[in-house]
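# step 3/5: fold
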Amino acid sequence: MIDEKTRMAGNKSIALFLGYEYIPNTNPFIHNFIEVTWNQGEKISAPMSKNLIGWVNKNPTQHLKGREVKTFPYSLCRNTKQLPFHKTWNWIMKTIEQIEKKYPNIKIIPEGEDAYVLLNNSTVYERYSKGTKKDSTWYSCVQALTLINS
């Protein structure tokens, strides 16, 4: 079982790795953009502004038809306690994909209820058992980031 302090620290590490930045309420990130609407077939553009606070991705990209396309900045959540990376397989797999894309010598392998970090395609760096397959895999991601940052 993973305690809340460990979960918050791990989620913070994942957020930073994935390009999120914490923006405090006292100093919001202001994103200026043009909003386009259609009024009876006529295109209307209006300058808009959005204050983003909390965990913000200022330079997000999406993969569309094999190309990376920049999208608008967005706020993921208001505080570290709300970071969602441990909650769903979608977030865990996105984290694994980014780790393995940026560091091809590191692999994260779920196996049964455990997960392990494979280094240089042959050495088991560490095996983790945290109660459920999802928790073990999430924890392996955090440990891989610890290895990367050391």
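# step 4/5: annotate
DSSP finds three helices and ten strands in the chain.
# step 5/5: archive (pending)
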